[in-house]
């Protein structure tokens, strides 16, 4: 025990020193500094400390072994099969990120340049896949894109054949379709936010100099959008690196294996924590390397000024080809992104009886019936409070961290960005194990489990929060801050009068995102959770292992509704706060 | 801004505050896998009746699927929190023995358990149910079901079979062991290489595979002999059938054991006895969809569609422990060639 705490204290000094240093050097207002320090403490004690402790400490099962062993890396990397797995992991993540951006880009353009009825809903609905646990996403994809899915059946009846005309799934294309379905809204959101703030001045100036549409786009708009494209790319790349069920099921599971699958196998099946930790470390480093390359040389600031928007139906009447293109894109998105979700919704109303499917409300009436052992209602309540709590925590933590990154340049910025992104890059399976250790040694019986789970979720969702808010925050011209300081505004007044109206919408989206991610989180929670923090994803898995697939779909639908309604409640309350003068 | 933060804080405090549960003293802590204690599993029924019987309070902890439960107990070995682990698979036995996790207990009720289920002669762990993996098919789509493992290689089933990955799922691993038991360590890889063409997908777990099957995506899935009984019991249909194979089926036996370091040894032993008693065993077929180790009463009527198949001799558990990593490595390389 003595040795262990020594190791702990060594690391705690290394970790806490920068904080002390930081505190002394700082000139920011006290309230913000307080937020920054608390965010750093949460990030460090909640993530870096447990993870470093775990990686540097000894294997709990073989105390004589260290976790990180060079011999493991040497053996692992000298096997050509493993190398192929590494290359494929990077390759699919790269492709998925690029495709998500290509697919999200027209959406960003459309949201920036046009208003149309239902735009609000449209934005919201595209985020929904994030809320569903992976098993439901997989089943939704199968129901919609599968060989016997809606798309294929529609085509079969059109063409009059018995064989599915297109094999979307069970190959690389299956992986990519699912990843794009999941991630393009993220790309769309991050790019649109930046786009909305590109000053019209530039474009008008370029036009008066005689630059054509294409030239204007490539020499002005595109370079100004690059930071947000980079931001979206990093997030999606990391997400796809850690993807697990989608890769195995929709990739067909034979040829396509990723590092995450190997980590899972080592940590969960073979109980080889040294191997799992080493691999997770390798995966994290590879992701960070990719990020470092991307983060270099993208220090750009964009002068803001909101652009005008046209009304899409009007432009359609005028026969504008751009507007028609936009409409076409909306239709494609509605089919391909909402199709699988609709399939899940319909599935929740079905029941298989006497050899055929019948439509019924049975699952919903079961969900809300008052009976003994109705674990659903309890899970609903748990999910709601853990989701809200962790989204709040994540917002506060994100606010502190984002203020550290914003407006910084060069190497220092890259460092901060990496520090805040690393929780995303590390495999959740390994994070779960590391946390479990930490929890057992330091937290058990001190904090109620629910707070522990909230902070864990907050840590995992905070990087998203930061990525979503950062581009918008940096669009605020720096002189605003100095001007309001010169005018003698108090920090709170500055924050409330100037930053808040500007960032309100983005905060809402970021909050909603954190909330949704927390609702769907399962992997790392399962390790420490017990009955007191049973959440809806667990309810879904429980129902499925009891053969109740349609019941699971119904719980999934509730999860979607929960998230959407929370969005509106939060939006309303933010609207209320926003109008205070 | 201040007021927002304040109100948000108080909201979160309120939300969390309600949570602090009155942790009453528990007399017995049981670790089991998630689905055992789900609303549909045996947990709610059997744990309640044990509490009534012993007049004590039990705490159930479910750290994930069955593999994870053992991991958790091993990780906590220095400072055990659980008194009983319920739900250990035969392929994991040797691993658990290598960590010396158990306090042996020989329940007097064991005399009623068939001798071939008692894999551990030292009684460190006690079996409570068992089942067989098998290929389940949709009889409406498949007029010509396979009759043995070789039949599955027929081009007729091209891209029609869904199985689970042996690296990430327990039926998947049993399937790998099944082929090793039937074709031997020299022959199993050849079999898998030939089977590859007929596989539509190799999923991460049973849930995705069986979901694909019931949603009509594939007519054959790797599941359990008892799966059709569910459809007969709750969906009143015999459309789904288990294909019985001539060479016999691989058996999964589930065990429970008393964890070394427990302070509740008497209670724990009482629970093991209860586990073999009528109340527990009778709940197994229709909630866990397995066979009880002691048939205190005849199986439910829906089990007429799930007759017990011939078993292939299981692989020796110490052999599995020694060779598993090697097999899995060879398997994944053979499959991705």
Based on DSSP secondary structure assignment, what is the total number of beta strands of chain B?
11
In spatial order, strands of the major sheet of chain A run 1-2
CATH topology of the largest domain in chain B: D-Maltodextrin-Binding Protein, domain 2
- Assembly level: heterodimer
Which CATH architecture of the largest domain in chain B would you pick? 3-Layer(aba) Sandwich
- What is the helical fraction of chain B, as a range of percent? 25-40%
Concise synopsis of the structure shown:
The complex is a heterodimer of chains A (581) and B (337). Chain A is mainly α.
Explain this structure to me?
- The complex is a heterodimer of chains A (581) and B (337).
- In chain A, helix 17 (375-405) packs across helix 20 (449-474) and helix 24 packs antiparallel against helix 25.
- With 581 residues, chain A is mostly helical.
- Chain A is globular and about 65 Å long.
- In chain A, a hairpin with a 2-residue loop joins strand 3 and strand 4 (356-359).
- Chain A has a two-stranded parallel ribbon. A two-stranded antiparallel ribbon of chain A has the order 3-4.
- Chain A has 25 helices and 4 strands.
- Chain A folds into 2 domains: 1-57 and 361-581, MetI-like fold (Orthogonal Bundle), CATH 1.10.3720.10; 81-347, MetI-like (MetI-like fold), CATH 1.10.3720.10.
- In chain A, 76% of the residues lie in helices and 2% in strands.
- Chain B is α/β, with parallel strands linked by helices and 337 residues long.
- Chain B has 2 domains: 24-130 and 253-305, D-Maltodextrin-Binding Protein, domain 2 (3-Layer(aba) Sandwich), CATH 3.40.190; 131-250 and 309-335, D-Maltodextrin-Binding Protein, domain 2 (3-Layer(aba) Sandwich).
- Chain B is 38% helix and 18% strand.
- Chain B is built from 10 helices and 11 strands.
- In chain B, strands 1, 2, 3, 4, 5, 6, 7, 8, 9, 10 and 11 form an 11-stranded mixed β-sheet that branches.
- In chain B, helix 5 (170-195) links the parallel strand 6 and strand 7 (199-203).
- In chain B, helix 5 crosses helix 10.
- In chain B, 47% of the residues are buried.
- Chains A and B meet through helix 6, helix 11, helix 12, strand 3 and helix 17 of A and helix 1, helix 3, strand 7, helix 6 and helix 7 of B.
């Amino acid at each position: 025990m003595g040795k262990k705490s020594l190791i702990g204290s060594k690391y705690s000094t290394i970790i806490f020193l920068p904080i002390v240093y930081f505190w002394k050097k700082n000139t920011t207002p006290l309230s913000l500094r307080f937020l920054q320090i608390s965010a750093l403490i949460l990030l460090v004690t909640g993530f870096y400390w447990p993870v470093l402790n775990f990686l540097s400490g000894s294997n709990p099962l073989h105390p004589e072994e260290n976790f990180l062993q060079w011999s493991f890396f040497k053996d692992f990397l000298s096997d050509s099969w493993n190398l192929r797995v590494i290359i494929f992991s990077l390759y699919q993540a790269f492709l998925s990120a690029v495709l998500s951006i290509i697919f999200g880009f027209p959406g960003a353009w459309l949201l920036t340049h046009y208003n149309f009825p239902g735009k609000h809903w449209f934005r919201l609905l595209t985020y929904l896949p994030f809320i569903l646990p992976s098993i439901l996403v997989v089943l939704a994809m199968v129901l919609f894109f599968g060989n016997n899915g809606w798309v294929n059946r529609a085509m079969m009846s059109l063409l009059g054949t018995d064989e599915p005309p297109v094999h979307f799934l069970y190959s690389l294309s299956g992986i990519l379709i699912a990843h794009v379905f999941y991630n393009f809204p993220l790309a769309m959101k991050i790019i649109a936010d930046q786009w909305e703030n590109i000053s019209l001045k530039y474009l008008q100036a370029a036009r008066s100099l005689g630059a054509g549409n294409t030239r204007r786009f490539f020499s002005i708009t595109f370079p100004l959008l690059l930071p947000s494209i980079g931001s979206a790319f990093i997030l999606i790349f990391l997400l796809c690196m850690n993807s697990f069920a989608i890769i195995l099921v929709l990739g067909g599971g034979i040829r396509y294996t990723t590092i995450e699958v190997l980590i899972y196998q080592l940590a969960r099946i073979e109980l080889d924590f040294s191997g799992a930790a080493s691999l997770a470390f390798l995966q994290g480093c590879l992701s960070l390397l990719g990020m470092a390359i991307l983060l270099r040389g993208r220090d750009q600031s964009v002068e803001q000024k909101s652009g005008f928007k046209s009304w899409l139906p009007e432009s359609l009447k005028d026969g504008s080809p751009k507007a028609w293109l936009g409409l076409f894109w909306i239709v494609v998105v509605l089919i391909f992104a909402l199709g699988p979700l609709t399939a899940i919704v319909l599935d929740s109303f079905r029941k298989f009886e006497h050899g055929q499917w019948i439509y019924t409300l049975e699952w919903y009436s079961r969900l809300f019936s008052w009976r003994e052992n109705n674990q659903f209602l309890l899970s609903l309540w748990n999910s709601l409070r853990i989701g809200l709590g962790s989204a709040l925590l994540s917002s506060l933590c994100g606010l502190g961290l984002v203020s550290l990154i914003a407006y910084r340049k060069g190497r220092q910025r890259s460092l901060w960005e990496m520090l805040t992104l690393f929780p995303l890059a590390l495999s959740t399976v390994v994070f779960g194990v590391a946390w479990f250790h930490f929890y057992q040694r330091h937290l058990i019986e001190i904090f109620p489990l629910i707070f522990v789970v909230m902070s864990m979720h907050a840590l995992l969702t905070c990087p998203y929060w930061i990525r979503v808010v950062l581009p918008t925050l940096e669009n605020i011209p720096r002189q605003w801050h100095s001007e309001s300081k010169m005018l003698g505004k108090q920090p709170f007044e500055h924050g409330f009068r100037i930053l808040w109206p500007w960032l309100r919408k983005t905060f809402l989206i970021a909050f909603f995102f954190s909330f949704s991610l927390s609702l769907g989180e399962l992997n790392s929670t399962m390790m420490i959770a017990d009955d007191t923090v049973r959440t809806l994803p667990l309810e879904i898995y429980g129902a499925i292992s009891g053969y109740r697939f349609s019941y699971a779909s119904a719980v999934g639908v509730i999860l979607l509704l929960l998230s959407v309604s929370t969005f509106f409640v939060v939006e309303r309350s933010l609207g209320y706060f926003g109008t205070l003068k | 801004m201040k007021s927002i933060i304040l109100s948000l804080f108080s909201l979160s405090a309120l939300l969390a505050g309600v949570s602090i549960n009155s942790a009453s003293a528990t007399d017995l802590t049981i670790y089991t896998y998630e689905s055992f204690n789900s609303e549909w599993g045996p947990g709610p029924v059997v744990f309640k009746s044990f509490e009534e019987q012993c007049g004590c309070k039990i705490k159930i902890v479910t750290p994930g699927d069955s593999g994870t439960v053992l991991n958790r107990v091993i990780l906590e070995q220095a400072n055990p929190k659980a008194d009983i682990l319920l739900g250990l698979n035969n392929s994991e036995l040797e691993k658990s023995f290598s960590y010396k996790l158990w306090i042996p207990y020989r329940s007097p009720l064991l005399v009623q358990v068939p001798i071939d289920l008692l894999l551990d002669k030292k009684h460190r762990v006690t079996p409570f149910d068992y089942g067989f993996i098998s290929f389940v098919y949709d009889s409406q789509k498949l007029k010509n079901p396979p009759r043995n493992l070789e039949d599955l290689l027929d081009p007729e089933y091209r891209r029609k079979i869904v199985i689970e990955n042996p690296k990430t799922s327990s039926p998947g691993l049993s399937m790998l062991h099944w082929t090793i038991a039937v074709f031997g360590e020299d022959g199993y890889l050849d079999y898998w290489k030939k089977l590859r063409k007929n596989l539509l997908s190799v999923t991460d777990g049973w849930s995705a595979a069986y979901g694909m099957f019931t949603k009509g995506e594939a007519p054959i899935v790797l599941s359990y002999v008892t799966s059709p009984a569910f459809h007969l019991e709750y969906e009143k249909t015999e459309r789904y059938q288990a294909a019985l194979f001539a060479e016999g089926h691989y058996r999964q036996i589930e065990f429970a054991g008393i964890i070394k370091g427990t302070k509740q040894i008497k209670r724990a032993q009482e629970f093991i006895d209860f586990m073999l008693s009528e109340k527990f065993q009778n709940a197994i077929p229709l909630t866990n969809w397995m066979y009880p180790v002691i048939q205190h009463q005849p199986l439910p009527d829906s089990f007429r569609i799930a007759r017990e198949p011939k078993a292939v001799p299981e692989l020796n558990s110490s052999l599995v422990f020694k060779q598993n990593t090697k097999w899995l490595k060879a398997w994944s390389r053979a499959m991705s060639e």
